[in-house]
């Protein structure tokens, strides 16, 4: 079945007419896709996540987008001063997008100089031979977004990329983001994925590549709040040069299949990675985070913190790996994964890993799995708080520390009520814990 699906996806890729100057990139991705061994439950990286939801559908490429969204969907957009690009079913929606600076352009609108930047960096950060769905993304490459900030320049507003699906049938939307920051450059990027209908059964295959040069700084935020029936395979790949900084934040609910990979490489001394993540599956949803941080050079730092609240009969996977190479002396790397199960049927498979080949390093990792504290529940209910409301407050408090670390205030205020509502499902239960 896997070989049949890989051939089916290859045939699908060859049906579309993409941008002509990206033909080599598509051919390279498609070739790597065909050569990949299909993951099974015996494949360690896919041990707890089945790809049957991908294999069992007859996918079609997304159709042209609508010109607007419903009022309910529009209300989900983050109200902020930013450069905004909106994609509906993978297609650019110009009426909902804002005027863009010279640093931001879609692949289709790139001039010759921007095309040269894209060709120089595209598929150079994400290893298509190692990452199955990165290869598929390149094979299906049709449209993308380039953010290129020049030497010692700072983008004055965040770049807000919105990806909305609104189809109830099996449509595949392929999204690509390429971020290149030259020496001393600074930028903020938000990627926001959501569905405008609870019946959406589409599949989003998203890939983001970040090339961060010496002394450059990127704040990258990724929010996945899609329907329970949707599928999402996403990858964020970044390289850090000397003294470069990447501050990342990711939040996701669950769905039929949601797999998000982070692959970060420290390639220059003094680089710094701060990566925080929250996952909140409920009902019968699934979510799978895999992170890999490669320390290839000395004097670099990594701080990675992921927290999950798993409810009902949901399942979550966290696999975090930090690899300290032999030459990566004086490394400081810490990883923490904490999980809260709010029902007896909820499950988490967590596997934090440290692989160390250098002897002068400071590294630590840990994982915890716990349930709501009975004493705390008793204390709160004895003071007039309902049990349901107490459960919401304790769950919210478990992750709010990471939300408060979000540097963009508008995003932080937007996240608070939505996270609280996911726990409470009622404004009556969340009114005490949302402080705008």
Strand content: 35-45%
Rounded mean pLDDT score:
92
Write down the secondary-structure element order. Answer: HHHEHEEEHHEEEEEEEEEEEEEEEEHHHH
Number of domains: 2
**Could you describe the largest sheet, including whether it forms a barrel?**
10 strands, mixed
Spans with pLDDT under 50 lasting ≥5 residues? 426-430
Tell me the helix content.
10-25%
Would you summarize the structure shown here?
With 436 residues, the chain is an alpha/beta fold. It is built from 10 helices and 20 strands.
Keywords:
2 domains
What does this structure look like?
The strands form two sheets. Strands 1, 4, 5, 7, 9, 11, 13, 15, 17 and 19 form a ten-stranded mixed beta sheet that branches. This protein has helices spanning 2-15, 23-35, 52-55, 71-74, 112-121, 132-139, 374-381, 387-404, 409-424, 427-430; strands at 60-61, 83-88, 91-92, 104-106, 145-149, 159-165, 171-181, 186-195, 203-212, 217-225, 231-240, 245-252, 257-266, 272-279, 286-295, 301-310, 315-324, 332-341, 347-356, 362-371. A hairpin with a 2-residue loop joins strand 2 (83-88) and strand 3 (91-92). The chain is α/β, with parallel strands linked by helices and 436 residues long. Helix 2 runs antiparallel to helix 6, helix 7 (374-381) crosses helix 8 and helix 8 (387-404) packs antiparallel against helix 9 (409-424). The chain is 23% helix and 37% strand. The chain folds into two domains: 2-384, no CATH class; 385-436.
């Amino acid at each position: 079945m896997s070989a049949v699906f890989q051939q089916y996806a290859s045939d699908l890729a060859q049906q579309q007419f993409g941008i002509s100057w990206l033909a080599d990139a598509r051919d390279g991705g498609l070739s790597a896709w065909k050569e990949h061994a299909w993951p099974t439950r015996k494949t360690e990286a896919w041990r707890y996540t089945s790809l049957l939801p991908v294999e069992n559908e007859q996918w079609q490429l997304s159709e042209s987008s609508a010109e607007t969204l419903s009022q309910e969907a529009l209300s989900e957009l983050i109200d902020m001063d930013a450069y905004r690009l909106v994609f509906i079913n993978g297609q650019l929606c110009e009426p909902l997008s804002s005027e863009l600076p010279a640093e931001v352009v879609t692949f289709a609108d790139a001039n010759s100089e921007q095309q040269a930047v894209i060709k120089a960096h595209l598929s150079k950060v994400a290893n298509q031979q190692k990452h199955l769905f990165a290869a598929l993304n390149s094979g299906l490459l049709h449209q993308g977004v380039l953010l290129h900030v020049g030497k010692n320049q700072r983008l004055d507003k965040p770049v807000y990329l919105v990806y909305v699906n609104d189809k109830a049938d099996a449509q595949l939307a392929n999204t690509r983001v390429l971020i290149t920051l030259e020496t001393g450059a600074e930028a903020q990027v938000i990627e926001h994925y959501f569905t405008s209908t609870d019946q959406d059964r589409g599949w989003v295959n998203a890939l983001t590549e970040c090339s961060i040069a010496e002394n450059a700084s990127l704040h990258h935020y990724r929010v996945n709040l899609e329907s329970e029936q949707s599928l999402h395979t996403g990858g964020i790949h970044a390289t850090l040069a000397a003294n470069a900084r990447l501050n990342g934040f990711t939040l996701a609910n669950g769905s039929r299949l949601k797999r998000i990979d982070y692959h970060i490489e420290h390639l220059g001394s003094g680089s710094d990675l701060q990566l925080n993540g929250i996952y909140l599956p409920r009902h019968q949803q699934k979510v799978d985070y895999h992170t890999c941080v490669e320390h290839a050079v000395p004097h670099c730092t990594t701080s990675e913190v992921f927290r999950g609240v798993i409810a009902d009969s949901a399942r979550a996977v966290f696999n975090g790996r930090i690899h300290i190479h032999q030459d990566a002396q004086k490394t400081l790397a810490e990883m923490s994964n904490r999980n809260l199960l709010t029902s007896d049927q909820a499950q988490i498979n967590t596997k934090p890993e440290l692989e160390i080949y250098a002897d002068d390093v400071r590294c630590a990792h840990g994982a915890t799995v716990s349930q709501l504290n009975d004493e705390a529940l008793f204390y709160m209910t004895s003071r007039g708080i309902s049990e349901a409301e107490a459960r919401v407050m304790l769950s919210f408090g478990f992750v709010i520390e990471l939300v408060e670390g979000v540097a963009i205030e508008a995003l932080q205020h937007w996240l608070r009520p939505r996270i609280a509502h996911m726990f409470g499902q009622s404004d009556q239960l969340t009114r005490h814990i949302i402080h705008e």
